[in-house]
Protein: Efflux transporter outer membrane subunit
Amino acid sequence: MRRLQHLNNLKPLALFCCVLLAACAPLKDEPAAAKPIQQQDIVLPPEAKLTAQQWPDSTWWKHYNDPQLNALIAHALAHSPSIALAHARVAQARSDVALIESGTQLKVNAMAEINEAHVSGNGYLGPFAEDRPRLGTSGPWYTEGIVGLGATLDIDLWGEHRDRLDAIMGVENAHKLEEKAVQLEISADVAQLYYGIQTNYQVTQRLEKLKQSETFVLNSHEARAARGLESHADAEMAKTMLLTIDQQLSMAKQQRVAFRESLRALSGGGERPEIRPMPLPVAQTQLPSSLNYQLLARRPDLQAAHWYVQSSMKQIDAAKAAFYPTFDIKAFFGFDALHMDDLFDHASQQANIVPGLYLPIFSGGQLEANLDKTRHQRDMLISQYNQAVLTAVKDVVTTGSALQSLQEEQALQDEKVSSAAAGMSNAKARFQRGLISEAMADEAQRQWLSAQIKQIEMQGQRISKDILLNKALGGGKV
Structure:
């Protein structure tokens, strides 16, 4: 008999356990997820000529030894709106971390309430609607007062809050790395614009000299045509060449203005000191000996994308935990009285402790949709990460290859400049001996100037590719 009674006492507990198990919304089987690309999956083309060159450091632009460039980059990194925006995103993510972290902390609120109520004579408080002092009722109007402290504590049984915290911390880490990526982007853009201006200065200087030479040729042809020694066709051809040079000078001026304005926008606006002409440096960056895990570790944009993937996986864990019951504890301690005069009497003290269990029995498909959403977001982020890795490898290989090709082309162009310089010196010497005309000697000078302009433009392209290669390699240790 006692055993039967004991079994009867266990029925409510068994029923509760059955309800608890049935209440947990069923989880769907997870479909095959996308996989992040691994270092062994980074395959380089056979034509990529890797060297023993070291990776760039965090201040890679300083190896150009140009104080003007150093000052410009320092100013841009301190005042660029893009840097301010990236910094604000990091601060916002840090606030989100603190907000999620507070979810499982004890929360205590002070409360005070006055409730002027008219009690219904036909409700379950009907006896209090009558005025019977002997029974302690003075209805139907009451002025109830409540004052005290309320507390709430959420118990993270299944780690949902912890997973959400880890997810938002992953986003914070991603934003920090995005800030570094923005710094790398700005420093590379400033360096490219700066050397674009320096290249423009040197090309303009040679074009001015070439214009003087073409002006002399035009004047010579016009003088001979005026004396009937030749037709006006040669003068017109010389005029066409002079107009072409004027067009090039105008385009160079317009390009220099565009470079300066772009540089001003990157640096946060305001007046900047005039950039003085400086000689162009020699590009020295080469491809490192390997491009596997080091590239993944050095590129801040790839590291940020990886943190987004990690964050999405934690969001999936949190979405799964939402299918299970949640538990919290609410408490109140204070005073509650139907008459304000009795509010702070000892008999008006009230204490409540309310443990609560919440079971997700029917959610209308909300939990399932949220889990599917987080899984799709993870797959999208993994695909974006994989594409970013492949694009990064492509950028490094193509930029390094282009830099190597430019080095070979410039070596040939340097030989052409040397040959043109030797030809110009020979022509001047022959002119001084009266062996050739001044026009022929001037033609040799124009060929030398044209070869120099091509040489400067090629050197500017090499520096531009050198900057892009430093950027593609991550610019330094993350």
